[in-house]
Amino acid sequence: MVNHIADRALLLDSLRRELVGPDPRGEELDCTQPVSFAALDKSYGPWRQKENGEEVLQRDPPTKRYGIGVLYPAQTLDQDDSGVDALLTQPAVVLPDALDPPQDDPLTAQARRDLEDIQHRTERSSAEPETEDLDLSSANSYRPSSVAVSFLASVPKGAQLIVEATGGRYQRFPVTIEEKERTWWLRSPVRLRAQFNRDDLLSIQKKLIQPTDVESTNLSDLDIRIEVYGRPSSISDARLFTVCLVNRSSASSIDERSLFQFHFKAHFESTGKQAEILPYPAVELEKPDDEEQSLALLYRETETFAIGHGCAADWSINATRTSALAITGECLPTFETPSVTPDIRRQDGSAIDVSMAALAGLIQGDDGLDALEDVVAAYEQWIDEREKGISLLDIKHRTPAERHMRECARCADRMRDGIDFLNSDPRAMRAFRLANEAILLQQLHSRRESRRLVYDTKGKRLTFSDPYVAQDTRIETAGRGKWRAFQIAFLLMTLRSTADGRASDRSTVELIWFPTGGGKTEAYLALSAFSILMRRLRNPADAGVEVIMRYTLRLLTAQQFQRAAGLLCALEYLRRQPTNEKDLGQVRFSIGIWLGGSSTPNSRQQARSALTALSQAQPYAENPFIITKCPWCAAEMGPVELEGKIPSAIPKVHGYERQGDTVVFKCSDRTCDFSSGLPIVVIDEDIYDMCPTLIIGTVDKFAMLAWRPEARAIFGLGSNGTRKSSPPGLIIQDELHLISGPLGSMVGLYEALIEELCTDRRNGSVPPKIVSSTATIRRYASQVRDLYGRETVALFPPPGLSASDSFFAQHARRPDGSLAPGRIYVGVHAPGLGSLQTAQVRAFTGLLQAPLALPDAARDPWWTILAFFNSLRELGTTLSLLQSDIPDYLKVIRNRTGAAPDLIRRLRNVKELTGRLPSEEIPLAISTLEAEYGGQRTPVDICLASNIIEVGVDIDRLSLMAVVGQPKTTSQYIQVTGRVGRRWWERPGVVVTIYVASKPRDRSHFEKFRSYHERLYAQVEPTSVTPYSRPALERALHAVMVAYVRQFGTEAAGRSPYPIPQGELAALRDLLVPRVTQIDPDERASFERLYDARTDEWRRWERNRYSGAPSDEEIPLLRPAGGYASPEHVRISWPTPQSMRAVDAECQVEITTLYLNDRGADNA
C-alpha cells in the first residue's frame, strides 16, 4: 500500500541531499591508498569511501556542488559562478555520448513547444508595474562566514551552556585516470563542542564570552569557532545570548577551508536547578486593542524562543510549552503546520453527520432535523466547557476570552433561532428542503469528469466516451451528500436575516473565516439557493436577479461560474418538476456571468462573430463563451478536436447555437435534461434583457454602471428608474481581504450606489443581505464599515480560546491525540549560490528529479510542481531557466549519479496559469492540472503561476509547490500555498519557498522561519480602505454621480446629461454625506466641496452626450480614463474609469515641423 507521508520524507531528504548535502551513493572505494583507473569507463562511479561511507565528489568542487549550509572563509567575495555552465565545463568525468541520445533529452519536443507558447504570450503582454523590495545584492558582496542564533535564558547556579556544531569538510584527493591526474574531493565529518560556565555567561564586563572547554574532530587547519555574546535584558535573572558559528580560516583555498552542511545546537546542562530558555522578548504594546488581545490569547502557546542571523532558528520545547529545551541553527528549515478538520464529534467520539438527502425530505423516516439539533447542542456544550476554563487563564487573557465566548454564544443563539424559524414558517422549511436537494444534485453532477465527444466511424455519428447516467440522490457517495458542520451552522444562523428583510440581523455583514479548502463555496451556494427559492415561493411572478456574487480575479470568477451553473441547473430541474412548477413560477432559474469584454461578449454582435470564427476554425479564434462542458452531465461543449478522419459535415463547435440574433447554450448530449437549453447567459445584452436569477461577476464590472444605463434592469428598475421587480436580496463578496488598497477604496466609493440599487424602498427600506469571506481577521470590522457603511459584522466561526479549536475548525489529530500530518514548509536561502536564478535551478531540478526514486504508484502527489511568482517578470526569468539551465542541470545530475536514462526526469508538459491566458484557456489549463501520473493524459511537470491562483484552484492531487520570493502579503502567502495538500489525510503538501538572498525582507522571513509559520494567521497585515480620500474622490466621484443618474433617472436622463438632473444629484448627495460622515468625518468638508464642484462642471459644460468615439466632433461628458485626450477634451470632459483598478495614462506622439520655423526665425 502506498504511504505518501513516508514518501514525502524521502522527497525532502532528496531535496536536502541535492541542496545541502552530503549525498553519499554508489559503490565503495578504498581511499586510504592511491586510486587509479586504467580505463575511463571504470571510473564513472558514483563512489563513496569504503572506510567511513562518506561522500566522494568526482565532478564538482564542493563550493560548486553546494551553496546552502556553507560557511566560507572570511572575506570570500561573492561571485555568481555556481551556474550550470560552470558545472558542465568542469574537467571531470562525463558519461559517453552514446548514453545521451536525443530521445533522452530532458526537454522533450512537446515541452519545448509549451515553453515557446508561454514565451510568445510573455512577449505580447504589456509590461506590468513592479513593486520591488530593496535589493542588497551589491551590499552583500561577501559570502557568509558566520551564522548565529539569539535567545533569552535564565541561568541558575550549577548550569552551563553547551554548544555543539557539526558539518563536513572536503579535501583534495588525486586520482589517476588513463594516466592523467584528476582531482576528486573526499568528505570527512567535522564536530565541535564548546562549554561555557555560568559566571562567564552572567559577567557584566564580558560581552564576548570565552569557552572553558572545547572539543573538536577533523578540524586541523580549519579554523571554526563557537563564539557567545551576552548582554543584559529587561527581565531580571535573565540575559540575552547570541551563539555564533564562525569560520575564521584564511581564504587560501576556499574549497578546503569552507565548512559544509553546518548545524549547531545550544542547550544547558545543570547539576541543580535547570536553566530556562525563555520566550524571546517582544515589543509590548502599552494599550493593545481588542484584536491584539485576541491574538495574544489565541496564540499564547506558540511563543518565539529564538531568532536567527544568517540561518533559521528552531527549538524544542518542554511539555508545558513555557520554555525551550534547546535552540538550533538550521540552514534548510522546515515546519509542519497543523491540518484543520471541519469534522466534529459528540462527547462519546461518534461523528455528527448531517445528510443533505434527509434534510431534503428524500429519506423516509428521517427528516434530518435531529442532526441539526445535535450540531447546535454540541456547540452549546463546547461553549459551556470553555467558559469554565476562563478562570484558569492568565488574567490578561480573561477579558478577550470572555468576549470570544459571548460571540460564540451569540452564534449558537442564531443557529437555534434558524431551527425555530424553519419549524415556525412552512414556506421557509420548504425552501430549505429544496435548497438541500439542489445542493445535493449540484454536488452529484458538477464533479463529473468531462465526457469527451468521439466520432463513431461504424455508426458514422458523434457519441460520447461515457454515457450519461443519472445518479440516485438518496445514495450518498464519498465526499458528497453530507454537510460539514460549519456549512450547515452558517446556513442556520443566516436563514432568518436572509429571508426576512426586516430581521434584526439583516444589516449584519456575515463574514466567513475558514481555512482554504474547507468548503466556503458550498455554504455560499446553499444560502443562495435558499434566498432564490424563498423569493419565488413568496411570489412566483417576482422573477429577476436575486443573488449577486462578486469576485476580484477573472480565474476565480470563471471557475466559480462553472460550479454555480450546476446549482442553477439543479434549481431549474427542480422547478420543472410537476410538484414545484406552480409554486416556483413559469420563469426559469438562470445564471449569468458579467465580465469585461476581453472575457465574455459585451454584445450579441460580438457573440455571433465569435461563434462564426469558432465554427470556421479560423486561426487564433478565441472562445469567449466560458462554458466548456455541460454543468449537468459533463458533456464536452464548445470547439472540439475529434480524433481520426472526420467528415467535413461534422460541426466543429458543439453546444453553442445561434438563436435569432443571439447565441444560446444547449447540451450536446440529447439524453441530457438540458439538451433543449441550458439556463446560462454570458452576453451582457442578454443579461440586461433576461435578468438571470444569479449573476457572477468581478468587482471591476460595476464601474460600467456609469457607461451602461441598461444595467438598471439587473437591479429590478424599469426604463424610467421605477421599480418593476424586487432588487437583488443577497450580495456575496468572496475574498474580502483582496478588496483593499486602491482597489478597495474604489470599490468602497461605488458601494453606496450599489447598496442603494439593491435596497427595496417600496414598503419601508429593505437593504440587501451581505455575506463575505476572508483569509484574515485583521481589522475586519473597520474594513467592513469602510466598504459597506455597516457597523455590525458577525465573524463565523467566532474564535474560541485557542487558535487550534473554534469547534467548527480544529487541528486534526490522530487517535492517540497527536497532530495529524500537515503541510510542510521548506525555506531555501542560498547566498552562497550567488543568484536567485541558480537557487531556482538547483531547487526546481531537485524537486523534479526526486519522484523518480519512488515507485510509479507513489509518484502522483509529487510529480507536478505548482510554481508561484510574485510578478510576471520573475516568471519570465524562470521560463528561460526551463528552456536551458534546468534541462542542462538534469544532465549534470545524470552524469553525477550515473542513473539510467529512464530514471532521469524528462519535461513533457509545461503549463502557465496567469492573467495572460485567454479566458477560454483557463478551464482547460485547470483541467490539465487534474491529469494524474500514470493516467491516460500526460500529467503536468511544472505549472508557472501568478496571483491568479490565490483563490479558486481546487485540485486535490496537487501536493508540491515552489514559491519564488516571499509574497508581498501574508494573506497572499496563505492563499497561494493553500492550493496544495488539500487532501492532507492522504497526501499532505510540501511548499518550498525560495528566498531572494539579497532582499532584507526575504532574509528576515527566513531567519524567523518557525516563528512566522507557527503563527501564520496572526502575521496577516491589516487592510486599508479609504473610499472618501481625496485621490479616490478625484478619480471616480463624478463616475458615481453619472452612474446614479443613469440608473435611477428617467430614460431621457439616462440618454443625455443635458439638462443637468438636479433632483437625482441632490438625492445622491443626501445619500453620500451621512456615509462620508460615518466612515471618514474628516473628509466631509472636502467631499462636499468636490461634489459641488463636479455638479457645477456638469452644469457649465452643457454636454449633450455621455460618451462617444474619440473621432466624434461633439465632445461627450465622459471619456475613458487612461486614454489619450486632446486639450479640448481635457477641458470639458471627465476621465472616467471603466475598471476599479489603476490605469496608466497614455500619451500620443505627434511629429511636428515647428522647429523648422524656429530655425528660420533664428537665421533671419
UniProtKB/TrEMBL annotation:
The record's keywords, sorted A to Z, are:
ATP-binding, Helicase, Hydrolase, Nucleotide-binding
Query: Gene3D superfamilies, alphabetically?
Result: P-loop containing nucleotide triphosphate hydrolases
Q: Which domain of life is it from?
A: Bacteria
Annotated GO MF terms = helicase activity
Q: Respond yes or no to whether keyword Thylakoid is given for this record.
A: no
KW Hydrolase (keyword) present? yes
Location of the Helicase C-terminal domain: 871-1034
Renumbered to this chain, region (Disordered) spans: 119-139
Note one Pfam family from the annotation. Answer: Helicase_C
Q: Which InterPro entries match?
A: Helicase_C-like, P-loop_NTPase
- The name on file for this protein is Helicase
Species classification: Bacteria, Pseudomonadati, Acidobacteriota, Terriglobia, Terriglobales
